[in-house]
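Section 5: illustrative case.
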């Protein structure tokens, strides 16, 4: 358990217990971004994390343009590789590599990346506390001194026996960024309409193998509808993973095993093998309840087709931190509700539009993966669009909105 930047400790309520302006639950990219945004605005911020940092996270670690653009000013990405080429294959067939003179995106190890983001939040003034689990939040009841306060109840299981049990932290606003199995999301009532299973292996490889993959990733459109696999090189380790619809666990595991064997990597022992469920929010899913907001995976915010979540976490986290500041300043429930609705509008107007186009792309990909593979490998405008999206110079939603031909093609394929 750690505690830093004590000069930013919260103000005291009538009971003498300190009240934080903003408490953020979860220290991944969404939570760190929210904590940074609130702290840089000069507010008293407490960032809570159940694990000790740095910690492993199942994730390819691809940093595309929108992720880069959402980072704090001056943030130095701990890149493990810079991608200039993409090899596409259709379940191991019809393999083709496309190359770019300019970098498409970067690759990071999530423990290093997440730790660096948390340190940025701490530099801005946020206080970090690790090794604590949030069991529930309360917006009414004996633990809540007034209607402007949220009680965050912590479960302390580590450390000396005298410190174990429950502890209550008070805040004017709370941001839930505690992952896809979010306790805060459950409090808000987040609803999902797409759940997928990702399986991943971190495979150390000899220098000769690593050199073959340097600067190049592989994307393989998989055997189950909506599935795909990837290889992301990070120095002397390859991150190899697959994702498919939840409920296809055995088939997803076979796909990963076959994928690794097909790549000639079965003889190397993974240093980490892990799995993770990703959840996409339903269109009518709430993003707030009272003075509590959710962002990132806790809100079900990620791109439905590729399941890319880092850029959604960074962008939604920043917005959540900014609007949490406004909620913390609200003097009554009506004003707090107004600010929460403004946060939801900002999310839906930006990330929500991108998710809508992503859902359409996933539906097409599930039915016609071969067509998308042919477009990306044999049709230069499609490859150029892919490159522009990964670099962050445009988005899939922007292409559909501004290019009538792309809109017509999407409609035609969606039939």
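Designed sequence:
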């Amino acid at each position: 358990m750690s505690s830093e930047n004590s000069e930013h400790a919260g103000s005291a309520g009538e009971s003498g217990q300190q009240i934080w302006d903003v408490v953020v639950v979860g220290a991944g990219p969404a939570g760190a971004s929210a904590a940074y945004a609130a702290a840089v605005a000069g507010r008293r911020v407490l960032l809570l994390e159940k694990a000790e940092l740095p910690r492993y996270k199942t994730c390819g670690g691809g940093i595309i343009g929108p992720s880069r653009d959402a980072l704090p000013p001056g943030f130095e990405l701990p890149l493990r590789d810079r991608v200039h080429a993409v090899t596409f294959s259709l379940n191991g067939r019809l393999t083709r590599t496309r190359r770019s003179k300019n970098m498409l995106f970067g690759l990071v190890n999530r423990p290093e990346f997440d730790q660096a983001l948390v340190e940025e939040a701490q530099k801005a003034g946020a206080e970090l506390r690790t090794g604590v689990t949030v069991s529930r939040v309360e917006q009414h009841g004996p633990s809540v001194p007034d209607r402007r306060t949220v009680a965050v109840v912590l479960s302390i299981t580590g450390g000396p026996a005298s410190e174990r049990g429950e502890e209550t932290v008070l805040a004017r606003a709370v941001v839930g960024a505690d992952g896809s199995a979010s306790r805060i999301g459950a409090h808000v009532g987040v609803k999902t309409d797409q759940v997928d299973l990702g399986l991943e292996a971190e495979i150390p490889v000899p220098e000769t193998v690593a050199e073959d993959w340097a600067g190049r990733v592989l994307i393989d459109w998989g055997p189950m509808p909506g599935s795909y696999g990837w290889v992301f090189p990070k120095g002397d380790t390859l991150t190899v993973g697959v994702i498919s619809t939840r409920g296809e666990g055995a088939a997803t595991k076979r796909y990963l095993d076959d994928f690794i064997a097909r790549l000639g990597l079965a003889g190397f022992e993974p240093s980490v093998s892990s799995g993770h469920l990703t959840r996409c929010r339903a269109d009518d899913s709430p993003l707030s309840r009272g003075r509590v907001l959710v962002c990132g995976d806790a809100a079900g915010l990620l791109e439905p087709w590729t399941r890319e979540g880092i850029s959604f976490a960074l962008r939604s986290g920043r917005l959540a931190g900014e609007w949490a500041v406004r909620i913390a300043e609200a003097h009554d429930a009506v004003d707090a509700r107004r600010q929460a609705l403004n946060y939801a509008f900002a999310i839906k107007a930006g990330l929500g539009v991108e998710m809508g186009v992503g859902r359409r792309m996933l539906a097409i990909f599930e039915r016609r993966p071969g067509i998308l593979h042919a477009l990306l490998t044999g049709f230069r405008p499609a490859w150029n669009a892919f490159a522009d999206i990964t670099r962050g110079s445009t988005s899939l939603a922007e292409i559909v909105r501004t290019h009538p031909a792309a809109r017509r093609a999407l409609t035609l394929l969606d039939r």
